[in-house]
């Protein structure tokens, strides 16, 4: 049954959770990405394994961590190692090819390249952000990445101010030509829509728009135009998905608010 | 154990002995976890300047050092600090105002750079970053690099895979080694000779320590060497690498130490609120840093109630149901 009342945060978390398959190794960050990973584990992918760039694998998430350096990621894990081991797990194709990662960014372009470093000139930025962290490594190594974004013109840009984490670079096979494996961001989940990157052209297209939003509104909130011909309305969260998200994943409402 | 082998000293003495203005240093931990804060605050109180700081994601300590004006050059992957600062506030301000020279890498690149330093090789290879401006945009110019013998002439180098298409890689990125003058880490347990036992995630502490000319260890518990010779497989850093051991309970406060205490969200929030405004930040620093003689002084200001609230639960290793948001 379709739920009546849900927030955009809940919609986004559920949309991302549905991307995660049973058996996936989920690279999670914090905030809504952590919530999406927890939702997948509790709803549609009970055998997915959540791991963190700090080195904790399959942690027992009794309380949602608010940072990947939170001691809550250390409890009940299969192994507490370090950064080298975490990134090696993704660079190593035997394990890396099973990883789905969840990332965020200040800017994204039509090819799914991400900027988490600076707005304006890199050397004298108008706004400085945290920087890559593990984002560049993850986008380089793993075949599937979800990007969480707010749908705004200043975030969906024609040209990034700084390319931190590689997607399809300039499209048309340029990612592989640069020396990267196939991978990078292939799904973009926003407060309005689910966008995907076409595997042939390397360009973004509109896949699903949320109830109450139209493709026109979505295009109005981006600097670049995308193909909307395949777009359909997204299925909102079900009662079961919402109840699980609220009661099992974030009962303290740390992220849902 | 004979007394001559003891490296035990106060953190004040260790900082004074191994630090200079312009030293190349690194600190352990990750964002709000196991940062060597007692040492960081002591570096600030002794007013060291123009430091060259290497970090991956060492949020709290990095921002305090930058905020105190100790850092001239920073090589870093990530400057954020959990929920209180998506981007570290004094870091952002310093970069935007041009008072800090920054070179950006990724977390894996920085970790591999420490590993290269620890292994004594000039670089490590990775398949990360092709097409990223991390490779093409240099915070430290070629001229600046060539003028400074302490840093490599190139930020990063791409070569063709010398082993054909092994690992399906046509190219390899080489990341240059780091060998800091001093690394500061905080651990749960150390012995008087310097052997360390870390519980929980080690982050990149082990590589950072082994890459450094000097390592200053602060610890929750200081024990005799015999105590760590039982189950030596649980030790990560043997005494060979370590120059000083300082017994500082709560030495990572306000960051967390697994199985000892959680991070102090109250302090981190107060820091973030103050850091947004120059005058408020100065008042904050005067009270919590310069207004106290040592780390115990800061703990006294925090008070018993706060320390009790962050005390780790025996089962999970963190403070269950602590107010964090």
Walk me through the structure.
- The complex is a heterodimer of chains A (257) and B (325).
- Chain A is of the alpha/beta class.
- Chain A has one domain: Glutaconate Coenzyme A-transferase.
- Chain A is built from eight helices and 14 strands.
- In chain A, strands 2-1-5-10-11-12-13-14 form an eight-stranded mixed sheet, with helices on both faces. In chain A, strands 3-4 form a two-stranded antiparallel sheet.
- In chain A, helix 1 crosses helix 2.
- The mean pLDDT of chain A is 95.
- Chain B has 325 residues and is of the alpha/beta class.
- Chain B folds into two domains: 241 residues, 3-Layer(aba) Sandwich (Glutaconate Coenzyme A-transferase), CATH 3.40.1080; 54 residues, Defensin A-like (2-Layer Sandwich).
- In chain B, helix 4 links the parallel strand 3 and strand 4.
- In chain B, helix 3 crosses helix 4 and helix 10 crosses helix 11.
- The longest helix of chain B has 13 residues.
- Chain B starts with 10 loop residues before the first helix and ends in a 16-residue tail after the last helix.
- The chains are: A alpha/beta (257), B alpha/beta (325).
- Chains A and B meet through helix 3, strand 9 and helix 5 of A and helix 4, helix 5 and helix 8 of B.
Write the layout of secondary structure elements.
The complex is a heterodimer of chains A (257) and B (325).
Chain A: H1 8-19, E1 25-27, H2 32-42, E2 49-51, E3 56-57, E4 79-80, H3 83-91, H4 93-96, E5 99-104, E6 107-108, E7 114-115, E8 118-120, E9 125-128, H5 135-141, E10 144-148, H6 174-177, E11 185-189, E12 193-197, E13 204-209, H7 215-220, E14 232-233, H8 239-249
Parallel strand pairs in A: 1-2, 1-5, 5-10, 10-11, 13-14
Antiparallel strand pairs in A: 3-4, 6-7, 8-9, 11-12, 12-13
Helix pairs in contact in A: 1-2, 2-8
Chain B: H1 11-18, E1 24-27, H2 37-45, E2 51-54, H3 59-67, E3 71-76, H4 89-97, E4 101-104, H5 107-119, E5 123-126, H6 133-136, H7 142-147, E6 157-160, E7 171-176, E8 182-191, E9 196-197, H8 205-210, E10 214-223, H9 225-229, E11 244-247, H10 265-275, H11 278-290, H12 295-302, H13 304-309
Parallel strand pairs in B: 1-2, 1-8, 2-3, 3-4, 8-10, 10-11
Antiparallel strand pairs in B: 5-7, 6-7, 8-9
């Amino acid at each position: 049954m379709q739920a009546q009342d849900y927030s955009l945060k809940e919609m986004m978390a559920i949309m991302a959770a549905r991307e995660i398959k049973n058996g996936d190794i989920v690279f999670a960050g914090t905030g809504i990405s952590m919530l999406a990973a927890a939702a997948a584990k509790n709803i549609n992918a009970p055998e997915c394994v959540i791991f963190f760039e700090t080195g904790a694998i399959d942690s027992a998430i009794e309380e949602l961590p608010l940072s990947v350096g939170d001691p809550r990621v250390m409890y009940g894990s299969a192994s507490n190692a370090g950064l080298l081991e975490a990134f090696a797990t993704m660079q190593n194709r035997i394990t890396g090819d099973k990883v789905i990662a969840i990332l965020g960014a200040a800017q994204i372009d039509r090819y799914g390249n991400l900027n988490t470093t600076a707005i304006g000139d890199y050397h004298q930025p108008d706004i400085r952000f945290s920087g890559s962290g593990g984002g560049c490594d993850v986008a380089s190594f793993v075949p599937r990445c979800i990007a969480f974004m707010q749908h705004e013109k200043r975030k969906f840009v024609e040209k990034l101010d700084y390319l931190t984490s590689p997607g399809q670079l300039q499209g048309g096979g340029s990612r592989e030509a640069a020396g990267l494996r196939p991978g990078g961001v292939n799904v973009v989940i926003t407060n309005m829509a689910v966008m995907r990157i076409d595997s042939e052209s390397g360009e973004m297209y509109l896949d699903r728009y949320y109830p109450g939003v139209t493709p026109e509104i979505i295009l109005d909130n981006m600097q670049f135009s995308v193909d909307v011909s395949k777009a359909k309305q997204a299925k909102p969260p079900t009662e079961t998905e919402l109840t699980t998200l609220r009661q099992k994943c974030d009962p303290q409402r740390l992220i849902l608010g | 154990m004979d007394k001559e082998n003891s490296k035990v000293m106060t953190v004040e003495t260790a900082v004074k002995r191994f630090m200079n203005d312009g030293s190349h240093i690194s600190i352990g931990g990750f964002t709000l976890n196991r940062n060597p804060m007692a040492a960081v605050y002591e570096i600030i109180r002794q007013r060291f300047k123009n430091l060259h700081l290497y970090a991956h994601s060492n949020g709290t300590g990095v921002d305090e050092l930058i905020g105190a004006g100790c850092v001239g050059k920073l090589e870093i992957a990530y400057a954020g600090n959990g929920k209180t600062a998506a981007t570290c506030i004094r870091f952002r301000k310093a970069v935007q105002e041009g008072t800090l020279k920054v070179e950006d890498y990724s977390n894996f690149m920085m970790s591999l750079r420490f590993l290269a330093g620890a292994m004594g090789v000039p670089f490590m290879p990775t398949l990360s970053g092709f097409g990223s401006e991390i490779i093409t945009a240099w915070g430290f110019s070629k001229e600046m690099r060539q003028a400074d013998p302490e840093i490599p002439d190139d930020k990063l180098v791409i070569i063709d895979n010398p082993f054909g298409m092994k690992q399906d890689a046509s190219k390899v990125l080489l990341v240059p080694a780091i060998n800091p003058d001093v690394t500061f880490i905080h651990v749960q347990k150390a012995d008087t000779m310097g052997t360390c036992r870390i519980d929980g995630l080690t982050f990149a502490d082990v590589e950072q320590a082994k890459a450094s000319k000097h390592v200053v260890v602060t610890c929750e518990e200081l024990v005799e060497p015999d105590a760590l010779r039982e189950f030596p497989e649980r030790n990560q850093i043997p005494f060979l690498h370590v120059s000083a051991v300082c017994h500082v309970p709560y030495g990572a406060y306000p960051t967390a130490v697994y199985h000892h205490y959680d991070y102090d969200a109250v302090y981190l929030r107060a820091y973030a609120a103050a850091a947004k405004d120059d005058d408020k930040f100065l008042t904050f620093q005067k009270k919590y840093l310069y207004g106290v003689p040592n780390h115990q002084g800061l703990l006294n200001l925090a008070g018993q109630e706060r320390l009790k609230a962050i005390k780790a639960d025996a089962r999970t290793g963190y403070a269950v149901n602590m107010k964090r948001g």
